[in-house]
Amino acid sequence: MSEAQTVAWRDGTPHSPRFKDIYHSCAGGLAQARHVFMRGCGLPQAWCQQAQWRVLETGFGLGLNFLATWQAWKLDPQRPDLLHFVSIEAYPVDVADLLRSADDQPELAALALELSRQWQDLGPGCHRLSFEGGRVLLTLCIGDVKPMLRELAFFADSVFLDGFS
After folding, report:
1. Which of 10, 27, 42, 156 lies at 20 to 30 Å from 150 by C-alpha?
2. Please, are residues 99 and 116 in contact by the beta-carbon 8 Å criterion?
């Protein structure tokens, strides 16, 4: 696994000492994922009755955008047959922090646990994680965003842009 990103937890809020920034707004990671990213892309309505839906994310962070998208997919009877989520992350967090970030989101606990079971050996490069019998795919690209984007041959239906400079 590449060097894990250190997460500092202050009053339950995750901070990145490396970047001197918080991982999500004070409103909470799940609320932010749903309002800013999913609602901003018109999800889940936009994917209704599509054969597949592809999301490109710059900055996996603690994984809440992926977990929220996966949960919405599971709950939607008009979901696409395939959800493919591609995320680029230069500094993946430790599996314990991945799980801790979902602690205050009980509706995501089972999904976070499934994700944590595959969260290993995440060295530089792209890793394919498969869930729901292959109907939900996470391609996690470990490395700097600019070169990774140049290497990806991927058409995205939705883009979740991280707020880094």
Report:
1. 42
2. yes
Type of residue found at 162: D
Q: Are 83 and 136 in contact (CB under 8 A)?
A: yes
DSSP secondary structure code for residue 76 in this structure = -
Q: DSSP state, 93?
A: B
- Residue bearing tokens 């019998």: 133
Residue 131 in contact with residue 69, Cβ under 8 Å? no
Rounded to two decimals, the pTM is 0.84
Half-sphere exposure of 154 (CA within 13 A, CB side): 24
| Phi-psi sector, 50: left (phi>0), alpha (psi -120 to 50), beta | beta
CA distances from 103 to 65, 77, 78 (A): 15, 27, 29
Residue 12 backbone dihedrals phi, psi, to 5 degrees: 85, 0
Q: In the Cβ-directed half-sphere of 26, how many Cα atoms lie within 13 Å?
A: 1
CA 52, CA 32: separation in Å to the nearest integer?
Answer: 24
Of 16 and 98, the one with more pLDDT: 98
Structure confidence by residue, pLDDT tens digits, 15-73: 566 766 655 555 566 777 777 788 888 999 999 999 999 999 998 988 999 999 999 99
